[in-house]
Design brief:
This protein is α+β, with helices and mostly antiparallel strands. The chain has helices at about 1-20, 25-35, 45-60, 75-90, 100-115, 130-135, 140-145, 190-195, 200-210, 220-230, 250-255, 260-265, 305-320, 330, 350-355, 405-415, 420-430, 435-440, 440-445, 455-460, 475-490, 495-520, 535-545, 565-574; strands at about 65-70, 95-100, 120-125, 180-190, 215, 230-235, 235, 280-285, 290, 345-350, 370-375, 390-395, 560-565.
């Protein structure tokens, strides 16, 4: 019996040795040869230097299997199917990288936070949860992690200053809580060819008295939407606008993703308005959420917010295809590629690769797009210094409930898929930029003409106005689900825009009140203000040099303004 056990043990040792034997620089060089080549901002020597660090740092964790998760995007599919297997070959750490729906990611991370059960070792979790993570103290803050417990597994070539999204993943305490993995913005999308057609330009000028071009404000967007709706282009009846309106969770993203701030809701400030953010939530001097309704100094049901809902509904009804009102986010996404939409005010750049495929009605025979993207127009309440749109920043998050050795292994993988060695290739696949060096890589200068202005936008100073949900939101999962239900009532006609926003702010304050009573977020949790009228809070804002909540404008249709796209791009370069 002892002899049999000895033989089995010996066999196990042999398996373990051979199992680790293939993890090392030979595999790393194979990876660089087959997958990366010269598609990197690093020289081959520096690529090998970075890979050698991963090989060495991973040795204590060889043979370990870890699980990580992210939402279903092209970028994450590439990580899961291509980068994870290579990481395993190079380091000996087996990574199971699950790719699931965004809502499921939020639900599962909530479950781990509530139960302490370690469902995943690493999460690509939207930075929209930064206020949640900072207040609940259930994630490892990466600033302290990299300097302390995780120092031995922190890449010396990580170069945090090269990441363009760390201001979105840094809390008011100055600590970094999440590491960006992918980013995409919602921008204005339009048919560049139709806008430059001589007859369209002449007809528009004759009707509206100014030049057809990229709309700077909502008044111009509305005129352009009216102009193109019902017009014939390329043998088709076309529409001047595209959106979606089905009462579905994705309707909530449509609004929490900065629609109110584009209208002029909230205060000035980047990446988010302070003290009132784009959700209309006010915080006090200690960053404690103190109200959502105008009565408590918030702006969720203020004139700017209501105006934003009014315009959303009006444009959906008048200028979008009739079926748009019954569509979800994912159903509406491909519609502009079919060739009958003139412009879209709120278009996610995550669709860029799909919109640039050869053979589509919106792509020329030479592969260049017939469309372009540009900064979104702003509403009549918007003022210079406010954010102008949304940028999704999916970011690596390490929960404290994950055992340290597993968190270290996951952190190695997180750094591998965001490394300078890998990032240009990953960005060529997914077009979700996280590094400044990647955006300025020569490969994207060459590819830019086929991406409709995406590269020009990301290289421009304008990109800083596109930001995720900020730290004023104390519990993103609980609050976000309130939006689609209440705005859905406005979309269906069950409530007026004012009634819907009144109900939404009241529902948000109900959550804030429960958090305040429970005290679970300590001295940075909600502390609600006393109630006063709009005039009181507007005067309060003026006295303190802030903006929100604003009074209702006598005329919400400001003078329309447009700019030529080529002129806009030229101004960025200058």
């Amino acid at each position: 019996m002892r002899r049999h056990l000895l033989a089995s043990t010996t066999a196990l040792v042999v398996i373990m040795i051979t199992g680790n034997a293939w993890a090392g620089m030979d595999e790393a060089k194979q990876f660089l040869d087959q997958e990366i080549g010269d598609v990197s901002t690093l020289s081959r020597a520096d690529q090998e230097k970075e890979m050698q660090w991963f090989v060495d740092a991973a040795k204590p964790f060889q043979g370990m299997e870890i699980k990580v998760v992210s939402e279903s995007l092209t970028t994450h599919a590439y990580e899961s199917k291509t980068l994870a297997p290579w990481f395993t070959k190079i380091t000996g750490i087996k990574v199971v990288h699950d790719v699931i729906q965004e809502g499921d990611v939020v639900e599962k991370i909530q479950t781990q936070m509530q139960t302490g059960q370690n469902l995943y070792d690493g999460w690509v979790n939207d930075s929209d949860l930064i206020g949640t993570h900072w207040r609940y103290k259930q994630v490892r803050n990466l600033t302290d992690w990299m300097a302390g417990e995780g120092k031995d597994v922190t890449n010396p070539m990580l170069d945090l200053k090269d990441f363009i999204g760390t201001s979105f993943t840094t809390a008011p305490d100055g600590k970094l809580y999440q590491l960006p993995d992918q980013q995409f913005a919602n921008l204005y999308w339009f048919r560049y060819d139709w806008f430059n057609d001589p007859k369209n330009k002449a007809d528009f000028k004759a009707k509206y008295g100014y030049d057809l071009g990229v709309p700077v404000n909502w008044s111009a967007y509305e005129d352009i939407a009216e102009f193109f709706t019902g017009r014939e282009e390329d043998g088709k009846k076309v529409y001047g606008h595209m959106d979606y309106g089905k009462k579905d969770p994705s309707l909530g993203w449509r609004f929490t993703d900065a629609w109110l701030s584009m209208a002029g809701n909230g205060d000035k400030g980047l990446p988010n308005g302070k003290p009132v953010d784009e959700w209309g939530i006010r915080v006090d001097d200690h960053d404690r959420p103190s109200g959502s309704c105008v009565a408590r100094g918030g702006d969720t049901n203020g004139p700017a917010a209501v105006y934003s809902i009014v315009k959303y509904l009006e444009w959906l009804k008048k200028y979008a295809p009739p079926e748009a009102a019954g569509m979800t986010f994912s159903e509406s996404g491909p519609v502009p590629s079919q060739g009958n939409i003139a412009q879209q005010i709120f278009w996610y750049t995550a669709f860029t690769a799909d919109m640039a495929k050869p053979g589509l009605p919106v792509v020329n025979e030479d592969g260049t797009p017939k469309w372009r993207v540009a900064p979104s127009p702003h509403g009549s309440y918007w003022q210079k210094g406010m954010k102008l749109g949304y940028q999704d920043v999916g970011s690596w998050t390490l929960l404290k409930s994950t055992p340290t050795d597993r968190a270290k292994a996951a952190w190695l993988y997180a750094q591998f898929v965001t490394s300078k060695t890998v990032d240009v290739k990953k960005s060529q696949v997914g077009l979700t930029f996280i590094r400044d060096s990647t955006i300025h890589d020569k490969s994207f200068t060459e590819r830019a003409p086929k991406l409709g202005g995406l590269i020009e936008f990301y290289r421009s100073p304008a990109r800083v106005q596109w930001t995720p949900t900020g730290t004023n939101v104390p519990d993103y999962p609980k609050l976000a689900q309130l939006w689609w239900q209440n705005i859905g009532d406005a979309a269906s006609g069950a409530k007026t825009p004012q009634e819907a926003m009144d109900a939404l702010c009241a529902a948000q304050e109900s959550v804030l009140s429960r958090l305040e009573r429970a005290g679970v977020q300590g001295d940075i949790g909600p502390k609600l203000n006393e109630e006063h009228d709009l005039a009181y809070w507007n005067n309060y804002a003026k006295e303190h040099g802030t903006l929100a909540p604003q009074l209702k404008l006598d005329n919400e249709k400001e003078k329309p303004e447009t700019i030529g796209y080529d002129e806009l791009v030229k101004s960025w370069n200058e």
